């Protein structure tokens, strides 16, 4: 099959494959070596998912490693099929997924529950990709419920991490050192303002989770909380144990989940999609900003295509290697990093999809290299705890932003507690019931003459503009005053 000529000016050629645009690395786009190198380094962070499989599904380490290799391989579908992003997990839902799985006995019963949830998530993604109803579905969910879902995450995470035997309790210094450093690099104004001044800050921030993991490892090993890393140099490449996967963890081994498991997973599957939907909005924004910076390449981001690819990944994983973090459409931090370098011009990066795809191809190579995996093994458990604790912070932050009115805040707080302690089904029931009872739905607000969600968004936008204006004025005054003092002196 020959490469298809681009339909639009400056669009990369591709082979049409239904709704997908199939591009072959090295033929339709070049490998970007900077992103490829970053992928080799940062790919090791994907290994932090192994404890979710060993601790929560009861898989042996070697089998869990094989499952993660398959999961990471699925990342490459996005670049190959025309989605110009760096995909990741649906990380905000991870605390809820783990809490849901704890309701089932570890072993085949729990694996079946995971399969049921991931099949439903796959169905929702694919359904939304085909029907293009995602906007209507998510916009129909009140902000108080979105906020409640996200605010429940830190409650659920801290419940687990403060219990006996957790990583936070067994390796407190390593876990906190990594979590606090990651939060500092991601959200500290000091870090943001001084990245250009201090090169080390810029490098650490650019590589996302890597340096927090390494600092956690150093602290943990030094204090005896973690075992020393061992570099295995015998076998270089790990080939997944497909036979063991098929006969132990696949749907063909544990059996198709009963209807009761699908019914119990429906509320959580819907929550997963509500949280994942924000990634599609973010992806579109990031791609549009990259497109505006350059006219030499047309970039085609299609949210329906991204939905379908994410659904396909979840479907394949559900059948062969169920994966608790679930397959999500976006890794925000790395997508931003690649997009920023793309904006530097054609010499820096020829095509955006080439940069995104190169990173994920290298990630796959990283997780099959035995020396890298063996070296990172001591930090995997703490790495998974760092991911959960950091995500708890992020979810709390975003959840608060969703709550625009006092009514939103009260409903979100109650719903978060119900979700953390009673599960997703009860939480959605309580959330919608309170919104209806307190006249907090948009159709009720319009009748009562109360500000709707859209109008509150406009108020927030004006407030943000005013805050930015004051900040700009403050920085300008700060620069001006010393000059004035010198003249006066």
UniProtKB/TrEMBL annotation:
Keywords: Membrane, Transmembrane, Transmembrane helix
Transmembrane regions: 33-53, 84-101, 113-133, 168-187, 207-224, 262-281, 315-340, 352-372, 379-399, 411-438
Domain of life (superkingdom): Bacteria
Record keyword Cytoplasm present: no
Protein known as: Uncharacterized protein
